[in-house]
Automatic annotation (TrEMBL):
Residues 294-308 form the Glucose-methanol-choline oxidoreductase N-terminal domain. It comes from the Eukaryota. InterPro entries: FAD/NAD-bd_sf, GMC_OxRdtase, GMC_OxRdtase_N, GMC_OxRtase_C. Its cofactor is FAD. The keyword Signal applies. FAD binds at residues 249, 595-596. This is GMC oxidoreductase. Keywords: FAD, Flavoprotein, Oxidoreductase, Signal. Belongs to the GMC oxidoreductase family. The active site is at residues 551, 594.
Amino acid sequence: MTSTTTPRFAVIEDVRAQTFDYIICGGGTAGLTLAARLSEDASISVLVLEAGKANLDDPLIMVPGAYLQQFGNENYDWAFMTTPQGHCDGRQFMWSRGKSLGGSSACNFMSYMRPPKEDINAWEELGNPGWNWSNFLTYSKRGEGFTPPADKDSPASCHNYDLKAHSGDGELNVGYPNSIMAAEVQLQQALNNAGVKTLEDGCTGTVNGTWMAALTIDPKKRTRSYVTTAFYLPNSDRPNLHILLEAYVAKIRFARDISPESDDNKRKAEGVEFIIQGELYFTSCRLEVILCAGALKSPQILELSGIGPKARLRGIDIPIQVELPGVGENAQEHSLFGMSFELDPGTSWNTYDCLFDPARAAAEMALFHEKQQGLFTMGLATLSYMPLQKVSADAESLIAAQRTKLEREHQDGKFSKGLWEQYQIQLRNLEESAGVDVEYTVFPAFFTFRSKPEPGKSYMTILSVLNHPFSRGSVHAASKICTDNPVIDPHYFEDDFDMKLMMEALKFVRVLRNTEPWKSVIAKEVDPGPEVETEEQMRDYIKQGLSTIYHTCGTCSMLPREKGGVVDPQLKVYGTENVRVVDLSVVPLHVAAHPQVLLSKLRISSNSETTNESDSGAARAYGIQAVD
């Protein structure tokens, strides 16, 4: 049933001292999708606690080309800061995360693709039965409402697709932008001439190549489709679905808060404490508490609740409920840097650069609203993924040296068993060219930080993304106060192989710069500039221009407990009866993809006779989007 009225959000009087079957902490990409699935059963009550505001029908969210204006804006963005990074000259980095209802699905780049099969199958190999490509593909189609491009048969069409990889029956709209930057076509042809093939579709499990990607947009209105429009608003009139906004989760309250966990007695969550406008409240759960707060907040909530590394919990004066050393560890992030190029001034280009002119920006916005055309309909169209062997002639020696180094460090006892198993998969994929180690994404404007664009000129930026970092970071609670931001330490370039791979990525962009037909549309390289040639200069440029693409995973890893795991294959937190984590934090080994399409499933049990009442209720969620 689709709601046709303005949604009524819960107020504190609806929630305080009440009991709900499920309490979901976080109304983002995972939380709203899961809430919609669970509340399909009218006998089940669901409460979602969301710390952000609704921001419904907001043009900065709904207009595809306006999303950058959200970053750093406290109404839309948590704008977390990392600790100073020792391998980046002490720099701190802003890690944006969506602060609106819908989480980061309200501010992401809208790119829609699936990871390579090998990356998903690795999750099963690491000790999670059933978490494989075959099951993933089945569940990931369930929420997809795919619309093929109208210009498929046009000779000028750049949008390919494979209908077998899609479904048109789901709630989340997936389609193609009706405008792309013309220079992207020449770039894709240059990639072909450099030996990179064009793929039919980036959702088939094979992403080694280049293609024009689909976006999560409404194919008619050309507006953003995200979990709020797809999963919440159509169901907002369900009497059993409650959304409480601007509610900060303080902690999960357990039935026994004093005695430590014993071998035969798991902790049972009674409910959740949360803060609104400085006041502390409590609400109870009958069945489960489900954390969907993302890879930066879910580990913090666990630690505030007494679940995590013993020494860290004692350091912030939190009583220990369950000792889990893996909480907040194994953080992996897609980092990137950009290279900006000035386009041939003799040609008229459709880039975002002209939007710095207020009159032109107003005209383009009017064109969007009146005809659903123009620059504000554009997204990140060109995606290219490739193994290191395609990028670098030195790949074989670089990979061999990395294996030798890691094996020596493993013999010295540097790595836990769980981390060493992850590294073995990463090394194998590198050696077999199965891993797509580098991503190139095109941004249709000047998007680097060393130089400044010149008014009246047009630019395009190639973003080089590190898909499978060897460096591992951490995210932990800074104090026992829930409104304090977590301590985020990505450990950028702690493993120097990550830097070496990025330098090879930079060199390959210069190969493309000299490959036709893209060569003919480039006037000059602006950043870093041709004077940046030596290894030291390239290292400095990458460190100065480094950013993140906001895809953190691993901080509540789905691994065996003895290997640093936080949740089991049913996403239940070890040592608890009824607490789950359902977001990108559970992904134990990163994937080469923009993770919006990562549909995880509450795979409660493959044996129905072992499924208890709580599990079967959660199983009705089928597949949920576990995305930051």
